[in-house]
Amino acid sequence: MAKKAVCIMSGGMDSTLAAYMLRAQGYEIVAVHFNYDQRTQQKELESFRAITARLGTGQTYEIDLDFFAAIGASALTDRSIDVPTGGIEAGVPVTYVPFRNGIFLSIAAAIAEKEGASVIGIGVVEEDSSGYPDCREAYIEAMQRAVNLGTRDETQLTIAMPLVHLKKEQIVAEALAYDVPLELTWSCYSDEAAACGVCDSCRLRLKGFELAGIPDPIPYRVKNGVS
C-alpha cells in the first residue's frame, strides 16, 4: 500500500513546494484546498486545480468554509478592512485570519484518518510569515500532539513543515530544484487578474525572486514600485 500525505494546498508557492517535496519522498499526495470566502478565492482555486493536475495527486478535496466571512476580523475575508499596501509592519497584521491553520489542520487530520495517511503537509514559513502566530513551528508541533491525542491510536500522524526555517529566496531556489510550476501559483492577497505587487504577500514573493536572481513568471499590476 502506498504511503500517503494529506497536503493543505492554497495554490500558493509555499504549499505547492511542500507538496512537491513530499511527493519526492515517495508519498502519494492527497490534496486539500479550502474556499473560505477570501478575496482571491476563485484564482486560488484555479491555481490549485492546475497545480494538482500537473502534480498528479491521488485524491483531491475542495472544502467550502463559510464561517470565516461571518467571523470577519481579517482583511482577507472582510471587505470593510483594507488590505495593507505600505509594507510589512511589526506585530500581527490585519490579513491574519483567526486560527485559520488550526482549523485547516483539524480538517486535514480527519481526511488523513479517513485516507489512511501518515503525514499532513503544510507550507508554513516561520521567518517570512508576516507575523502570523499560526505559522510558528512550536504551534504546529503542538497541533501534532493534539491531533494524535484526538485520533485513533493507530493513526499516528506527523505534520510535515519542510519550509518552516527557509527564507523566501531559498523557497524560490528549492521550487526550481523540484520543478515546481511557479507560473501556476498565486500569492496575492487582493487581486486575481494580475497580482497587485504591493500587499505583504506580493512584497515577500517579489523580494524572494529578486534575492534568488530569478524573474517571477506571474503577472503583476505593480512590480518593484513601478506600474
From TrEMBL:
Protein name stated in the entry: 7-cyano-7-deazaguanine synthase
Keyword set includes Metal-binding: yes
Cofactor(s) required for function per UniProt: Zn(2+)
Xref: HAMAP family: QueC
Keyword Ligase: yes
Parts forming coiled coils: none
Ligand binding (Zn(2+)): 188, 196, 199, 202
Catalysed reactions listed for this entry: 7-carboxy-7-carbaguanine + NH4(+) + 2 ATP = 7-cyano-7-carbaguanine + 2 AMP + 2 diphosphate + 2 H(+)
Pathway(s) this gene product operates in, as recorded in its UniProt entry: Purine metabolism; 7-cyano-7-deazaguanine biosynthesis
Xref: SUPFAM superfamilies: Adenine nucleotide alpha hydrolases-like
Name of the gene: queC
GO MF assignments: ligase activity
Organism: Sulfurimonas diazotrophicus
Task performed by this protein: Catalyzes the ATP-dependent conversion of 7-carboxy-7-deazaguanine (CDG) to 7-cyano-7-deazaguanine (preQ(0)).
InterPro entries reported in the protein's UniProt record: QueC, Rossmann-like_a/b/a_fold
